[in-house]
Amino acid sequence: MGLQRWFNSLSNSKSIFNAFLVVIYTASIIFVGVIWPAVHESRYVEEKLSQLLKYERKQLYRNSLSDSNLDDLSNLVAERSIDGHNISFELCPETPPGLVGKLNISIKNLKESVTNEASLARVVYGGRYQPDCIARERTAIIIPYRDRAEHLDILTRHLHNILQRQQLQYRIFVIEIALPTQFNRGLLANIGVVVARESSNFSCYIIHDVDSLMMNDENLYRCGSQPRHLVTGNTKYATKDKEYGLPYKLYMSGVIALTDAQYNKANGFSNVYFGWGGEDDDFNVRVAKVGMRFVRPQENVGLYMAIPHENDSSNPINPARRGTLRSAAVRQKIEGISSFYKNKQKINYKRYAIEYRQYYTWVLIGVNEAGITQQFEKYMGAA
Ligand code: UDH
Ligand code: NGS
Q1: Which residues is 354 bridged to in the sheet?
Q2: Which residue is closest in CA terms to ligand 2's atom 18?
Q3: Which atom belonging to ligand 1 lies closest to the Cα atom of 253?
Q4: Which residue intervals define the domain Galactosyltransferase N-terminal in the entry (predicted)?
Q5: Same domain as 50, residue 161
């Protein structure tokens, strides 16, 4: 009896032992075949992602975005959502198919009339967009700016609506000059180009007034073989019998388009026009001096509506502007976009802030007005 029991218990523990072996065997198969590869894979993915983030952080740093933005990974996520979009590898058509021509925008309901939720939804943080085909132009819109928040809101929405129809790859930069310095449109345009160059390889720069709204979407924001003045008429210069006008024949302000090479060739804008007036005429002299000329689109295409506004208190008329204009050709060789690169006559400026806002990239800069004026005084005035 005792022997029988002992025998039974032996066979029981044997089957327990066998069951134990089966469990160990199955567990090791699951571990080796499923768990380990999954852990390994996720570690691998994590490592890749962290490399990617590191790389993108570096890129962002190179693009001279502020430290606070480096921590804002929403930018990166947004960037990838572009990649996630079904982008075809075909060049966009020469004539964008969705254009509507003359726009019906009312000055009364500007805010509503320039809001198209669908197109705004496709704007990536920092005011960037990429069409579903390979864009024919990579355009940087540069807006010299101070204290016109309402205009900026209207203009940027308006541009996003239209530039997407134009199938451009673009980004909007708003370059603001900090107080107490007087406004300086030319200097801000130059700094905008410096910032845009650091950010990407744009094929076209558009220097854009904040209060000018394009009224015909056939006015493509592209560059050409000559610098382009995209305005054939503005409501600001309306006359009794003309809804849109220009103040004088050689006027080339408001909205202009130049390639990087054209901008460099003219040495960009002058930096010495603090306050209102003259910097645009000076730029026109520069363009002519190096054998280029401004060309305009068709008469009925380059139409702009001006958003009415009061005069700006920090942009008083510059009483010296006409005298300064006389030395345009002399200063062209000395100061301009070249002043922001290694140069004996380098201009120092500070970037106080750079922010990726929803519809544009905002850069706040500071310069020493008295310092710049002193630096170039001997080249100003009569040539
Ligand atoms: N700008 C600002 N803030 C300012 C001043 C200028 O954002 O305080 C920018 C803005 O992009 C504007 C552009 O610079 O569209 C040109 O400004 P402007 O003042 O030269 O031109 P605007 O036609 O006003 O808007 C003209 C009023 C001054 C008339 C003086 C003599 N006729
Ligand atoms: C010229 C100014 C330009 C200015 C244009 C239009 O006289 O800077 O008027 O001004 N040139 C000089 O002062 C040398 S506007 O009519 O828009 O006020 O753009």
Answers
A1: 363
A2: 277
A3: 16
A4: 92-223
A5: no
pLDDT in tens, the chain (383 residues): 465 666 566 567 778 888 888 888 888 888 888 787 777 666 655 565 555 555 545 544 444 333 333 333 334 333 434 444 555 568 999 999 999 999 998 878 887 888 888 889 899 999 999 999 999 999 999 999 999 999 999 999 999 999 999 999 999 999 999 999 999 999 999 999 999 999 999 999 999 999 999 999 999 999 999 999 999 999 999 999 999 999 999 999 999 999 999 999 999 999 999 999 999 999 999 999 999 999 999 999 999 999 988 887 778 999 999 999 999 999 999 999 999 998 889 999 999 999 999 999 999 999 999 999 999 999 987 65
Ligand nearest to the CA of 252: 2
Same domain, yes or no, for 138 and 9? no
Stated as kind and residue range, the H or E segment containing 82 is helix 74-84
List ligand 1's pocket residues with C-beta within 6 A: 143-148, 183, 185, 209-211, 276, 311-312, 314-315, 317
Q: Which atom of ligand 2 is nearest to the CA of 325?
A: 14
Nearest CA to ligand 1 atom 15: 209
Same domain, 134 and 204: yes
Distance 310 CA to ligand 1 centre (A): 9
Indicate the top mutation candidate among 252, 276, 318 to test ligand 1's pocket, ranked by most ligand atoms within 8 A of CB.
Answer: 276
Count of domains for the chain: 2
3-state secondary structure of 365: strand
| Strands of 233-234's sheet in order across | 212-214, 303-306, 233-234
> For residue 81, how far is the Cα from the chain centroid?
18
Global pTM? 0.80
- The binding-site residues of ligand 2, defined as CB within 6 angstroms of any ligand atom, are 247, 253, 277-278, 280-281, 321-322, 325
- Both 84 and 167 in one domain: the answer is yes
Domain that holds residue 14: 1-57
Residue nearest to atom 20 of ligand 1 (CA): 276
Same-domain pairing of 86 and 151:
yes
d(CA 216, CA 209): 17
Chain-centre distance of CA 73, in angstroms?
Answer: 18
Specify whether 215 is located in the same domain as 122: yes
Task: Give the three-state DSSP class for 177.
Answer: strand
